[in-house]
Amino acid sequence: MIDDNHNLVPALTFFSSVPGIFGNQQNHHLQLIKQMLVKYLDPSFVPMARFQVICTVGAFILLHDKDDG
Fold first, then answer.
1. Which residues form the IPO4/5-like TPR repeats domain (predicted)?
2. What are the residue ranges spanned by the domains of the chain?
3. Which of 1, 53, 56, 62 has the fewest CB atoms below 10 angstroms from its CB?
4. pLDDT in tens, 38-65
5. What residues have CB less than 8 Å from 23, skipping those under 6 apart?
């Protein structure tokens, strides 16, 4: 989730724009995805990155929301 220049926010922005990026490999990586997102929600982390993590989590949840109601 970190780009070539070791920047987290652009990587999170991309992930929130394309939350299905992992395709059919998502289930294989789901635990790692969850761990990384939770890690960056820590209050000691950069506020801008935490904001982007929240956006990313929201996009991921909306993509996988099975509730039609």
1. 11-68
2. 42-68
3. 62
4. 888 888 888 888 888 899 899 988 888 8
5. none
